[in-house]
Amino acid sequence: MLVKCETKSNRVKGLSFHPKLSWILASLHNGTIQLWDYRIGSLIDKFEEHEGGPVRGVGFHMTQPLFVSGGDDYKIKVWNYKMRRCIFTLLGHLDYIRTVEFHDEYPWILSSSDDQTLRIWNWQSRSCIAVLTGHNHYVMCAHFHPKEDLVVSASLDQTVRVWDTSGLRDKRTGGAGGGMGGPPSQASGDVFGTSDAVVKYVLEGHERGVNWAAFHPTLPLVISGADDRLIKLWRMNDSKAWEVDTLRGHFNNVSCVMFHPKKDLIISNSEDRTIRVWDATKRTCIHTFRRENDRFWIVTGNRNSNLLAVGHDAGMVVFKLDCERPMAMANGSSLYVVQDRDVQVVDVDKGSTGKQLAACRRASNSMTHGMKSLQFNTLNQTETNILVYYSQDDGCYDLFVGPGKVAGDAHLSPMQGSAKAVAFTARNRFAVLQHSGSIGIYNMQNELSKKIDNPPVAVDYIYPGGNNRLLLKSEEKIVMYDLTARKAIDDVAIPGGVRYVSWSPNGQYVAFMSKHNVVLAGKNLEYHHSFHENIRIKSGCWDENGVFIYSTLSHVKYCLLNGDSGIIHSLQSPVYIVRVHKQFLHFIDREQTVNKMRLNSNEYLFKLSLHKRQFNDVKLYITNGRLCGNAVIGYLKQKGFPEVALHFVEDQQTRFNLALEYGHIEEAMTAAQELDEPTSWNRLGLEALRQGNQQIVEMVYQKTKNFDALSFLYLITGNVMKLKKMLKIAEMRNDVMSRFNNAMLLGNIEERVKIMAEMGQIPLAALTAKAHNLTEFIPKLEEQLQDNDIAAHISRSARLLSPPVPLCRPTAGDSGNWPLLRSVKAIFEKTTFENVPLPPEPSFEDAMDDAAPEETDNIWGADDAIGGPSGEPVIAGADWGDMDDLDLGPDVPVEEAPKEDKGQTVSMGDSVQSKWLRARKLPADLIAAGEFEEALGLLKRRLGLINAEALEPFFKEAYWATCSSLPSVPQAGSLLWPLLTEGNPKARDVAPVLLFSSKVIIDKVKEAQKLTTAGKFGEALTWFRSALQIIPLSAAADAAEEKSLLEVIEWCREYVNFARLEVARKQLPLTDVARNVEMSSYLTCCKVQSKTHQCLALNLAMFTSYKGNNFVTAASFAKRMIQGSWGEQGNAMVPKAKQVLAMCEKNASDAHKINFDHKGNVESYKFCAGSFTLLAATDAAVTCPYCGSIYLASYKGKLCDTCQLSEIGANTLGIQLRPL
User: Fold this and answer.
1) What is the mean pLDDT of the chain?
2) CA-atom Rg of the chain in angstroms
3) What DSSP letter does each residue of 1045-1092 carry, written as one string?
4) Which residues are within 8 A (CB) of 426 and not within 5 positions of it... i.e. 6 or more apart?
């Protein structure tokens, strides 16, 4: 049973599949009707208008958005699931309603009831058109025949009746089908029998009440199940019906029985808590599915698929009896596929019909086909090598070997064997996973060549891994195993466990698919990307460009190696992709038919070309107009290429927003001129001011008549000449405040005095003139003051206020724009689309990847020229636009602004950090570059890091160790100058200073060893653990240094656990003597590096055991001390050990029982680093993915107490200390 959906609810009494959608209706014993999407296992809706008990029958309409239900409230309700309500109710039954269903063609509803009748209703006219009487007990079910005018019913009167409704059809449809929705005739005359629907057969044979009867979908057969625990098969012809056979096996009432819609099977369920599958031809039971506590009540099938559903006491189950996945594999244009249990080869480029190569084994029964996989040997292109693996007979395989090209049908003889799994490994070799767990390598004569008895992991399954390589599956982990070197290359964790493996055509990439997850990796299992799908993943394969195309139950999707993904199109039914080539998708459907369709690959090829910076192809997709919409614009903005969007966006507002977003002032100005809105001009002015583009700011202020801002612009840029013009213009505009402000900015005292005098502010004018000693104005103003003395108001310490003097005044032809950090036309490399020729043909793979940008004349000057609508340069200050309506007078001289000179721009090169990250991207390099988040992500994938707080101080130390600064010019910040070990900041190849070098780490370990010798275990623990935590932040220069650092990890792990044991032992109460002796014994199991420390551990264990009266244990430690060689310090303790041994031999007993066998091989002892207890050989254990500490299985998912970094038992890629 392949369960697709399982729900928990009240008892399910009725079920109905939707004819097209992945929906199923379930009517419950509590009166609720539930609508489920079984594809994703979610409840869509609930309908609760039935009152008075269970809803026993429910059914979808074939074409309309309707379903019908009948319950114990004697009501038949017709619902519209789009409107989510009952649209009408049919009344007429006098007792519980058992089943209801729609007719496939006519507007009829058939219902059966405990009132001993069947009724046929016209749901369009909402009336009863026939009442079928004859049963003398409850009618338990009734069904229309799928093709003929027949109805079958089952009753507790122990009979099954078949009714002929052809007269009703002729009467109600007018012969030719017209009038199906017309007014009905009166049904009152039909209540007690008419010729419209008559009994054709009465099938008697059951000894107790019949619960269910059903038609065969194509044959003249009826199946019935009853309370006598029997299932009977009946055959009909035009004149009679008779019993064919009886199926025995259930040991309680048979609740429901049906023919399988696709296979020659019978499905039954019973109150004995079983579902039984019967061979309809042989009439034998094939398989039995049992539940512990739940009785089964209903079973139904989907007419268009192999799906079945059963309802039981606690919910329902949607399932299939067998896997429908086709056995197929493509090699180039040749598709090797199993069809009708024959291996065929199909040239998918020429057609869908193939040539027979060989015949597969016969299935063990009609329920399952027994085949698991088909593999073609892609490593041998001169011959045809095919492996077909079967799950039947406890796992077996057929090997077919033949010539490379087959002209016509062939019949290759199989070479057979038994196995748990098989996979090709070389041109003339394949691997067999044997039932013992070992791996055998066989030649093409099916002869054993060599055997691998002890694979690196417990192998569940094997997959092809390339030439002389094999992928080993172990639970949720995949290991790449080199058969020549007999070692594991790398491993990767697949959430949910691998189900299928797909290699790219060139063998560079591999995809691991589980039920809901996909992991994309390289040929050496280098991690690229992983993703999760809520809907089941059915199949997938790679196209020629390295894009993974996969199908779910409802969509065909794509995923790039960088993680970009999307939907290509939706599916009506699941497909199994076997090949993607040249924008064509080759797939097999569930009817085992080979199909081909054009794939809309524009979107993912566009993204791929943008990722690879193949801008010729980008231009091709944009200019052809095949991509558009906000989604593409958002994608380009997200990836940092908003300028590309400008080449296919025509809406001026969108172009303006995009240009502003990435700072393209010229494009924004062109769009603003088209829009010509004040809001757009203001936004353009703000961006131009931010970039220091004075010319465009000046033009914008002129367009928007923002004279005050324009005056301030001239002030801060030191343009006194234009500021004087602003004063004249303010005078012409009669704007007094503008005149006064401009006079203030210019320092023009005379003008200010005039303005104040004109405005009647005589005291202020006189005060200003007196303060600035303007003698020509003072007499006239004093006359008007009428002898008021204003000199008394002038402070003796008063100082003249004058505007700042510009240090640099603009000269003729100087634009005054700030120099840009980068060229606008080179925002990213090779995006000058105007200069890129259109490729001759849309060949994605031939796109120029490294083409140099074309040289253009005066490219630097052209970058800064400000173009108007027609391409002429805009002269700053010359076009005032809307000033023609002002009466400026003929005598006002307006000076023409000089044309600006083309400024220069400076292109920003790569930062030093980007240079070293391009060459090497280890955690140490990322930390030195300040990329803490990416470094933590890498450590999580590599080590299973879950405690980042422990690394925070080390991250800061390592980062600041690479930072230095140089003093710059006054009033400017210091220059950051990264410290390098190789090269200089201008060089191409650089490497940062690494604080935590192997020398630093080893020095830290040596210092910790000194503390251990001195017995300062708490301090030693801190030092060893810090050394363990900084090793991932280091880098090895070569393999020898990498090996030494990996050895240091093992040293630190042993010493950390050694120190933890002793610290924990000292915290024990003195009364706990047994545990004290036990933990001191465990100290001797730690594989510490120093001989002195080993001797000290034995000495401590010996004295602790002796003091605890465990003399036998103490004697064992004393013997080990005497027999060992410990160096000068250790040998000094041997005489004392001899004395202890002599005393212990006199007593020869242990007062306390401890979990430590002193007679065993101490080197092989393993103890849990979490609970400090010894692990038995049968105990399930997990390890820390970084330090390798061993724990009991119950510690899985917790933080490792040794390194305090990683998650115990996590599946990771492993530590990396140098580039691959």
Assistant:
1) 83
2) 44
3) HHHHHHHHHHHHHHHHHHHHHHTS-TT-HHHHHHHHHHHTTS--S-HH
4) 379, 467, 468
Structure tokens of 609?
């070309």
The alpha carbon of 795 is separated from its chain's Cα centroid by a whole number of angstroms, namely: 77
Least reliable range by pLDDT among 274-278, 662-666, 804-808, 932-936: 804-808
Q: What are the φ and ψ backbone dihedral angles of 988, each rounded to 5 degrees? A: -80, -45
965 has which bridge partners? 976
**What length is written for the chain?**
1220
Secondary structure (3-state) at 610: helix
| CA distance linking residue 635 with residue 641, whole number of Å | 9
In order, the DSSP letters of 477-493 are EEEEEETTTTEEEEEEE
Rounded mean pLDDT, 1114-1131: 84
Beta-strand runs (E) in 395-455: 396-403, 415-418, 421-426, 429-433, 439-443, 448-452
pLDDT band at 67 (very low <50, low <70, confident <90, very high): very high
**CB-based contacts of 294, cutoff 8 Å, min separation 6:** 273, 312, 313, 314
CB of 974 within 8 A of CB of 967? Answer: yes
997, two tokens: 């070098």
Helix (H) or strand (E) holding 296: strand 296-301
- Say how many CA atoms lie within 13 Å of 1024 toward its Cβ: 30
Cβ–Cβ under 8 Å, residues 456 and 439:
no
pLDDT at residue 839 in the model: 41
On whether the CB atoms of residues 174 and 137 are closer than 8 A, the answer is no
Q: How far, in Å, CA of 762 to CA of 758, rounded? A: 8
pLDDT digits (tens, 9 = 90+) for 139-169: 999 999 999 999 999 999 999 999 999 888 7
773: CB partners within 8 A, 6+ apart: none
How many angstroms separate the CA atoms of 479 and 490, rounded?
6
Beta bridge partners, 300, equal 309
3-class DSSP state of 990: coil
Q: What is the pTM of this model?
A: 0.58
Looking at this protein, which amino acid is placed at residue 1148? A
Query: Residue type at 966?
Result: L
